[in-house]
Design brief:
alpha/beta, four-stranded mixed β-sheet, about 40% helix
């Protein structure tokens, strides 16, 4: 009752097995099931969108938006460098300052923080070069160097928001200024799995409808019985139950899904 093992060749021949039909806590290998459903549902080329909106008007002479700035989106991979990139993209639109407040949508997260308020505060500081942390500067310079973006290293993007930070949905009257898109889902999943990132797994799981939705999809896709799979979380935290036999089906389905692309 302590361990279960199933080893097969690629063509399905059993090499070794022990308790292969007993259920165990799969821990972080649950993330492979999450990745499988994400690929099947969203597709490997899916990109998470972050929108920047305003209810104000840009004074082109001064570069000031007289109004508020709103951020929408649920990108699980949004970090410092993406915040600086937003500042650069806003600068390219002629925007240097916002007279009002910064509002982030309830689902917005940054740097693996589950708090929209803290994420908004961090974005507020990252947009403004006078408030930007050394860590944020290093992240931006590191990414620009990897991308061989010399022009990006020669300028210092900055947008100063003069008001406060709060959490609120984008009002219907707001206008979209720009949309920033994440890396492809297949690349985000590689990071998630290489580092066994619980936060990213749970965030992507939310986009898939949560643990019960993922369980139902896996049950349907893999031809499982109602009791073959128990999922409490999509990162592997908590009490989950899978047998080696079912986990092998997940491995094989994930391999087949990736081979399609």
């Amino acid at each position: 009752g302590l361990q279960g093992v199933l080893i097969e060749t690629l063509d399905g021949k059993v090499v070794a097995s022990q308790g292969e039909n007993e259920q165990f806590n799969p821990a972080s290998t649950m993330k492979l099931a999450t990745a499988l459903v994400a690929l099947r549902t969203l597709g490997p080329d899916h990109r998470f969108a972050t929108g920047v909106w305003t209810d104000g008007v840009l004074d082109k002479a001064t570069g000031v938006v007289n109004g508020n700035l709103y951020i929408s989106g649920r990108d699980p991979s949004f970090h410092y460098e993406h915040g600086v990139l937003l500042a650069r993209e806003l600068n390219q639109l002629g925007i240097k300052q916002v007279s009002g407040d910064l509002f982030v949508a309830p689902g917005f997260t940054m740097n693996f923080s589950s708090s929209a308020q803290r994420s908004g505060e961090r974005l507020y500081d990252t947009l403004d070069s006078t408030r930007r942390t050394a860590e944020a500067v290093r992240a931006w310079n590191y990414e620009r160097t990897l991308l061989n973006d010399r022009a990006g290293l020669e300028t210092v993007p900055s947008v100063a928001v003069m008001g406060a930070v709060d959490v609120a949905p984008v009002p219907s009257s707001a206008k979209l200024l720009l949309t920033q898109r994440s890396s492809k889902l297949v690349d985000i999943l590689k990071v998630l799995l290489c580092y066994s990132n619980n936060f990213m797994a749970e965030r992507i799981g939310e986009a898939l409808g949560g643990p019960e939705s993922v369980r139902q999809q896996l049950t349907s896709v893999l031809g499982l019985g109602p009791e073959d799979l128990k999922i409490a979380s999509l990162s592997g935290l908590g009490i989950n139950r899978i047998s080696p036999r079912v986990m092998m089906k997940i491995y094989r389905a994930l391999r087949a899904e990736l081979e399609k692309h």
